[in-house]
Amino acid sequence: MAGSSRSQKIKVDVIWDFEGGWVHDKSTREALKQRIEASLKLVNDRYFVENITAVGPSYGEKARALAPLIGQTNIVPLHISEDNVRCGTEGCDNLAAFIPGKNDDELIMRTTDRADVLAMIKMYACVLSREKNILVITGDQDFLAPIVALTQFPTFTNVMVARSGATPSRRLCGKRTWIFEDMIMPGGCLPLRGGSIL
Question: H or E stretch including 66?
């Protein structure tokens, strides 16, 4: 009996903030599940990835690049509602301060913020549904507080992080931490040494 439980696979829920951790190479995007799994298996050969939840807007260059993969790969979209990002557009009824040269990219900033909120909700939903192994892919420091909270959660949730080099933050760490760009190289890689929460 002990042998069968030892060989039982362990699911890792993957939450990918694709705006904060983009994959530029098309062939790598197509094989993203396998690339991530290769790195996870170097830590524990029982880890497996069922789906990758891609959190972000349903429009824009990155969303268009992901669209052909939906239904063809293990990437499952979690899109931001259009209603949540109109504040940054011309003619929006909601007031948003516009400071030329300071927040000209208000729409992008607000879109990313909404993606962060959705990804964090997904993280907590995984915990509540008893998924105890979560990999968060992001380059956004906004995730630091909820990751710390989940890591210290009394149910011993295993939150791992693959942080993107696009906006690296040394403090953005989980119980195990990878550099995302290294994690998805062929053959995978081990997590950073000492990559734990400070």
Answer: helix 61-66
Strand segments (E) across 38-132: 47-56, 75-79
- The pTM assigned to this predicted structure is 0.74
| 119/123 Cα distance (integer angstroms) | 6
Q: Which residues contact 79 (CB under 8 A, 6 or more apart)?
A: 56, 57, 58, 63
Quote the CA–CA distance of 174 and 164 in Å, as a whole number: 13
Domain ranges of the chain: 10-183
**CB atoms < 10 A from the CB of 88, how many?**
18
Place of tokens 């995978």: 188
Q: pLDDT digit string (tens) for 61-109?
A: 999 999 999 988 999 988 775 544 444 455 555 444 444 444 444 444 4
Just give the CATH number of 10-183.
Answer: 3.40.50.1010
